Amino acid sequence: MADDPSLQFDALVVGAGPTGLACAIELGRIGCSAVVLDKGCIVNSIYHYPTNLTFFTTPELLEIGDIPMTSLNDKPGKIEALKYYRRVAEHYKLRVHQYEKVIAIDGPDGAFRVSALDREGQRKQYLCKKVILATGYYDVANRLNVPGEDLPKVLHYYKDAHPYFDQDVLVIGAKNSAAIAALELFWTGARVTLIHRGSGISNSVKYWIKPNIENRIKSGEIRGYFHTTVREIRPDCVALETPEGEVTLRNDFVFALTGYRPDVEFLASIGVTIDPATKRPRTNPETLESERSGLYLAGVIVAGMHTSEIFIENGRFHGKLIAKAIHASLR
């Protein structure tokens, strides 16, 4: 219930990624009580990265809360990152409520009522003075909008190749996530086809991955179709629209790795104004407060479509900026 003292805080953070955790740490440093809610587990987006992922950065650039991050190699892997962020949450005794999805944010600045559903579907209501959205940019997968997209065999996130050994797998996309998935699936014994509506593998693909995937396609080890789209997904095959006409391929699984977007519908429902061209939320650049007073945004969500502008490396500093603004407003 909303009058339950255990559900009342100075600030509530939506999203338990590195940026959300950093916000909670900085709020604690200024004496604000805070709770972090996430619809999934702690650092949920990192958990859903491919199992064997290696970050394209050094450990110190992923650090939050002045806690050193150690790594066996120059660049940390996913498992090391998960362990690190768990350790940080424990060190600072952060209140992180996992598997609670925020569904509404009502009330004015200073007296927000945040409604959430827990894993059992029970509704909880929190009272808080300030709200910080640190939900990232990967809430909603971009849909193909083709028949059969809702079949169970269609996946929008790639994590591990093992379940697809000796299976016919279609990978849609030509950026990092698609290239990595296609290679790992091939190495694990899947029969892989990669398609993309463009002319080739994206130039943004990491320099050590791009020639590898291009060579596999050139040799025929991975079938590649470019200037190609999916026309229909069926239980046992896929129909592709290629420059030479329709092609039907036998298929067991489809990875539609066509990008993601923030939940703009939810953002609009809670009073966050989105620029229609850039998908960038309108915020005060000095405080990151949105046009709804008392509601702040942190992390990659601030960048809109320009996701390359903000990573963990710089999004982690948003917490200090926001905490400073909240401290000034609550004095």
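The above is record 1. Record 2 follows with the same two-line structure.
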Amino acid sequence: MQIVDVAWRVLDNGNYESGLQVWRQETETLDFVPITPGKHLNWSFRGPKRCIGSIDSTGKPVKCPEDSVMLRHGVRCGPCSALDFYDPCIRCDGRTCLGTEARKAQCDISDYVVYVVVFNDSTLKVGVSSKGRVRLRWIEQGADYGGIIKYITGGRKARRLEDRLSKRREITKAVRGERKIKGLQSTIDLKTAQKIVDDFIVGLESIELGTQVELEGLSKYYSLPSLDISPVPWRKRSDPIDQRPLVGDVIGMKGSLLVTGIGSSYTVVDLKQVIGYSLEGDADITMVTQSGLMDFF
């Protein structure tokens, strides 16, 4: 089975479950590999890295027809990237829309949120999400606190505001996995995180944003407990992924970071690294329920 993405989904009781979305050879529907604390993993990742396919205009995932090998960075080959309904949105800054006319029309009438998140190492990040999945977006990133800056109808308007805010010195639009790993044992309380955001908002001097962003703590949604021992990274950036094993008991997940344990030692892997690779092991598979288009944006 091929790894397509790291996934979190909302359960009926309001909690969140982490796992992997995968293609199985004999099916045309994405399946879900749950990653739950206590589960023993005996995984091996096999190369080469291949294209994960595209999303069509109905929100349906489509396998890459050529099963193309990815020789560079990225997760989609050129043809699948051109076909993907949402791919242009990833690079959007709100100035020029590169999407199809259908995507542009949908975007202009949809409700979005410009948000801010705070990580335990005091990193401040802004982003855009569809209104209905904003908390899920925070959890996917492994943020520790999240708050809504502004509700906006129209994706390009939201992206323009995000782009303007991200030019501030204290803000970032992306947090690398290595930085998240280093911050796993850092802690910050709600009061401190709120002050960081309040100082940022006051410094904007903009009447269009309002004056208050109320943060929500997110730690209760993750399965990863506080760590008393610093986990060892699963691999160095220069180490190959092909045929590399991952063995141990699941300690928990935070965003895309998976911590496993053997005895008293911990290992941490950013599962974003293995998207596109094949997974061999004893994983249990359950079906993903496909929902709305915006689940993929």
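The helical segments are 78-83, 87-90, 101-109, 134-141, 155-166, 177-182, 190-204.
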